[in-house]
Amino acid sequence: MRKYIADFQKLSRNLWWSWDTETKELFKELSPLLWERVNHNPVELLRHISNDELLARIDCEFGEKLERVSRKMDDYLAAKDTWAGKNAPGLVKNPVAYFSAEFGIHESVRIYSGGLGVLAGDHIKSASDLGLNFIGITLFYKEGYFRQYLNQDGWQVEDYPIQYPECLPIEKVTGPDGKDLIIPVEIGQTEVFAQAWKLQVGRARLYLLDTNIPPNEANYRNICSRVYGGDQTMRINQEIVLGIGGVKLLHALGEQPAVYHMNEGHSAFLTVELLRNQLAEGRTLEEAKQEVSSRCVFTTHTPVPAGHDRFSRDMMHYSFDKYLEQSGIQFDDLMRLGSENPDDPNSLFTMTVLALRLSRSANGVSKLHGEVSREMWQHLYEGVPVEEVPIGHITNGIHMPSWAAGFTDTFWKRFSDGIEQVTESQEQAEKALASVSDQDLWCLRYRLKRNLIDFVYRYISNQLFHQHVYATYMEEDSSRSTKNPLSPDVLTIGFARRFATYKRAPLIFRDLDRLGRIINNPSMPLQIIFSGKAHPHDDAGKEFIRQIVEYARLPQFKGKIIFLENYNLGVAKRLISGVDVWLNNPLRPMEASGTSGQKIALHGGLNFSIPDGWWPEAHNGENGWSIGHGQQFENPEEQDQRDAEELYDILENQIIPTYYERNEHNIPVKWLKKVRNAIATIAPEYNTHRMVREYTTKYYLK
Ligand SMILES: *Cc1c(COP(=O)(O)O)cnc(C)c1O
Known about the structure:
It catalyses: [(1->4)-alpha-D-glucosyl](n) + phosphate = [(1->4)-alpha-D-glucosyl](n-1) + alpha-D-glucose 1-phosphate. The chain has 702 residues and is of the alpha/beta class. The longest helix has 30 residues, at 438-467. It starts with a helix and ends with a helix.
């Protein structure tokens, strides 16, 4: 019997459970209510359930299930015949060290803010599935990213609940002496200490550095409080701990990475620590640079110059003073490595430039973003024509097992070998689809949309309760109970992502009369669900949220346009599986890739997007809709106007009529044809298994 308790503990302490539907169901079954209350966190769940109860609960059926998933996890962890074993044995022996300022692995581990983190989380999961020896490096943010509330005016308010290590599946890392492993990092004149934690993600390990420990003064303890919190000083301190501390940690663990992968420029200081190690071994600076670049690969994610991290000469001088003293690196040499214009002493230190100069390869995250990046950084490569600038691309993907809703997973198991088959190749996906009737597919759509709509109802009841503004979306009926405003019979659009202004969340409201007519068409109605957080310093983004909430209160939109607070991985999973159409209208070409649209395919949703990021590669005319043809106008007003008109035209003339065109069994045959095309063309291509294989063969293996 003790074994059962140990099994539960074991399952809860490896995030593998988060992409295994059966294990997730098992935890939920222990207490569906608690499961919701603890934000789907099994460690916390088990803290609330006594061993007596656990033992009593294990009747035959439950015990069998527990044994089965426990064995499944053991088999997974022990498997030797992996893709990497066959195709990259060198990367089974020596690890890939993957540095990222954020990791979005599961909603219960709040160390991410948005797409970059979700990508890192999906990357590490696929690396585990494929059998790479893979180590992630990040920071342990005690307060994580904020929890979003809206006040009565629709203005975003931020709250920072603390996450306690004892409620997370993380362990302190200890050194050979059995004591806590503490990594010292020099910042300014101070030696700052970081505790190392470990989080197990399937076979992969994620290490988290944490400066929130007693020897540090308060201003250094805070380095690891919040994801992207604070000012420039905080930013550089975080990046020093991540990059330099991360390399020191790997060294202390005795790891010899085959390759260091920088996911965005935040971690580029890792190259400086690698340089220091090379110089300490007696190499010249030139030799050291060669050696370091031969070990590093870099992925850039930012298609606009202003988005890249830059630090002033003074700030660099202040922060690296003591560190450089014993490193053998001259300050001016360091500055030259990160300057766009090395001859200008006032040139800022740019993390991306450092990363580009000290990597053996660099890439953007979609075909279009590769092109944009080559143009943006051509000036660093004198005399090199733009098409030969050494920045390639690997298009982002998503970890399909994590994003498949429980019912979707079951659905595909019923008609095929499961999502493994559907995501393997277009041919295999088509084969699976051949055994699915239109009736089955339509049933899947209804079921997922019903789940979403029920979820939204519970969620906004809570949300409005604390806002004391029930009137926002809900009508009270004569019995004074509220009605679910949404209906699964209605075409449902989702729009959810960070509220960075370039994503233009309010674009669809540009012509309120026209939108009002579209939404309230009695025979072909429409409903829209929004969600998303603005960065705490981004007042323009918060203003977008406020506007949308204000529009949602207009009589013509009431109950038909909903804003869900506190977008996170959990809310995302509900939305992407339930909506019919996923809207994405960024200002081209600012969406480096985007991944949220990739999440809907497996569930039978369709993309409606500006041809930006991954979408121009994926769109074939049949598997969704593009807004415009990628025209870029100088005048942002004109751009918004043209894009909005195009958006309304497609909505009115194509999307809505296709959705409501039904056969004699009330099935939208043409719509489902598009859905089939989207599943077959998107699911097998835009996933992180394909992406990580591509990173491995193109960049990780020399
Ligand atoms: C997928 C995802 C993102 C990325 O969305 P984009 O539309 O690609 O920017 C951001 N946040 C969460 C919570 C996600 O799940």
